[in-house]
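Fold this: Solute carrier family 66 member 3
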Amino acid sequence: MFVLQLISLWINFQCLRHKAPEIYRIYKTKKVENLSISSVLLEETAYTFLLTYNIWQQYPLLAYCEYFVLFIQNLLILLALSKYSTYDSNEKEKFNNRSIPLYAIATFCFYLLISYIGLVPAAWMRFLTIFVIPITASSKIVQLKTIITNKDGSQVNRSVAKMAAFNNVARILTNFAETYDKIMIIYLFVSLILNTSIVIACAVYKYGPIRIAKDKKKKKTT
């Protein structure tokens, strides 16, 4: 049991440092041009459903604390998107590029609140948690397809993908030992397979298409 607690603490620490440098850089430079609001919203949706599901199941805090950490980190990113995004003064639409993150923050926090006080039906809670699996898979499959299509993994941070894969393995072990929640185990297995695939693809296409073309040219000349 002590070993499982250490594993959970290690996962939480890894998640804490996962986005902390990025958040610090965003608030220091006040630049959010390279951030995709749709990607952040998709991530936060998945983290919200996973967090509320684990709270609803009344699992030990250490068994899911990383989702709470990631939930808070993405809220800070959404706040930065609202604060530092460029705003067109001629834009008359109600939902502009600054208001969308604020509405999203309010929605996520409201859903967390009503889930915590037990206003979300059990069937709906399970359905939304299962729905997280295709949400997570689709985003990672798109990333994997981009790497393979462009034959370039140089733009992807392999250390982040490796850390995510290791976290998946560790969390699978703790889930088998502590909760044996089939929905969470399936989600973690799917994430593990896709994160590992991204790591392998990045290793194969580490130097990008330019280096691969040079290597082929050398073979022809020899």
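Residues 164 and 192 are 8 Å apart (CA to CA). The chain has one domain: 2-221.
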